[in-house]
Amino acid sequence: MKRSPELLRLADSVLLPGFEGETPPEWLRRRLGEGLAGAVLFSRNISDPGQVTELTAALRAERPDAVIGVDEETGDVSRLEARTGSSRPGNYALGVVDDVALTEEIARGLGADLAALGVNVDFAPSADVNSNPRNPVIGLRSFGADPVLVSRHTAAWVRGLQAAGVAACAKHFPGHGDTGIDSHHGLPTLPASPERLREVELRPFRAAVEADVRMIMTGHLLVAACDPGMPATLSRAVLTGLLRDEMGFGGVVVTDAIEMAAVAGRYGIGGASARAVAAGADLVCVGGEHAGEDVVVAIREAVADAVTEGLLTEERLTDAARRTAELTAWAEAARTTAVPGRSLGLVAARRAVRVTRRRWDVPPGGVAPYVVELAPVMNLAIDRHTPWGVGEPLAKLLPGTSVARFEEDDWTALGPAAAGDALVPAAGRPLVIVVRDAHRVPWLAGALDRLLAARPDAAVVEMGLPGRTDLGAVHIATHGAARVCGQAAAEVLAGLLDGS
């Protein structure tokens, strides 16, 4: 069957690509004018607010109703503040505080910031219930392990963000929390029974739908209770049968990055894209790792071919385009002109700190501390250049503080005497050891044990998902590695914040 210009335009209308650079490339401008749905902004596209505002205006000059999305979860996953660290804590910290009014206000402030920049979709919040503490990709991105708590904060986030005229996007449907594989690298399986799926994983998504969330992002995971043979993103049983028909969601369904190995590894980027749209997805997100016109062309061709081969109907594409048009019309009508107010990020981060004291009065008297930061490799959702830690803010509060950071290779290179060598500069000084997800990173847990064996008087700051809290002379859990979380921990160490 011949592919008509209208079919190719419809195929373009389901694509939401990323791109390189801080200004839109020629191919993106041209394709927006030809019907491309919009674009996704990554940290590589962002330098400062003025530049982002000019960028989004340039995109809208080509297509006034373009979808302009960004993956701004706050906390560990930040695109707007990837260079500085987030000024707002992430979901887990907000769940620890468990003040839904605060969560809603944090999201409202973020929405005002995004609206002022010209962004109309935020791929947040994560509505995943992090019931597996060893989950390598969700963790602190979740509000917690209790589905009731996660549900109320998911709804609060949706209300706050959308009050500013920015569409919220609950993810990763139907729930990525009880998995042990990162879908960037492989296909996770959600082992839940149908009963557990509805009581745990789906509960926050139902809350999001009831809060009128405008978008839901699919998760690249196998949900045996719904479709044992096809990842959720590509499953009609999940996207149409469960999400549309059973749960009554009428908004836009967007895929997680379609180039991720969980789906593209088996079907290719084009094949996965066509199958996702056939299953019920309205927008295909691509471009985190593959950000060129060639990828957009390949997906468009695959989607159009799927129609001519009978695997996908033109009516499905028309329906997807209609839903996207309704989304952007809503965003334009709801967009606020309010000036962003004072951020409550540091307030929230301070409230999220938990301190377990035993043998050390904070702050240490008279001598500047030595800080050892043990840095694990982070998952691909977190920009690897985003700064984190306690040493820098502590040095501003306690002049003379010095910092050493070790990654796994650095630590291994020190050999059996690693702890002793690392602690030579700490002689006669208070020691602070900063870790991130020590409970699930073997080398880091081993390094922490050896450091504490040599210096049991040390303070331990856990900036990841908390495990044991009985480590060190004082244990500080920040429940996040955002810039404000590091600041809050530094204030505890300097005696300026008591902690709970």
From TrEMBL:
<comment type="similarity">
    <text>Belongs to the glycosyl hydrolase 3 family.</text>
</comment>
<dbReference type="InterPro" id="IPR001764">
    <property type="entry name" value="Glyco_hydro_3_N"/>
</dbReference>
<keyword id="KW-0378">Hydrolase</keyword>
<dbReference type="InterPro" id="IPR036962">
    <property type="entry name" value="Glyco_hydro_3_N_sf"/>
</dbReference>
<dbReference type="InterPro" id="IPR017853">
    <property type="entry name" value="GH"/>
</dbReference>
<keyword id="KW-0326">Glycosidase</keyword>
<dbReference type="Pfam" id="PF00933">
    <property type="entry name" value="Glyco_hydro_3"/>
</dbReference>
<protein>
    <submittedName>
        <fullName>Beta-N-acetylhexosaminidase</fullName>
        <ecNumber>3.2.1.52</ecNumber>
    </submittedName>
</protein>
<dbReference type="InterPro" id="IPR050226">
    <property type="entry name" value="NagZ_Beta-hexosaminidase"/>
</dbReference>
<dbReference type="GO" id="GO:0009254">
    <property type="term" value="P:peptidoglycan turnover"/>
</dbReference>
<dbReference type="GO" id="GO:0004563">
    <property type="term" value="F:beta-N-acetylhexosaminidase activity"/>
</dbReference>
<dbReference type="GO" id="GO:0005975">
    <property type="term" value="P:carbohydrate metabolic process"/>
</dbReference>
<feature type="domain" description="Glycoside hydrolase family 3 N-terminal">
    <location>
        <begin position="36"/>
        <end position="326"/>
    </location>
</feature>
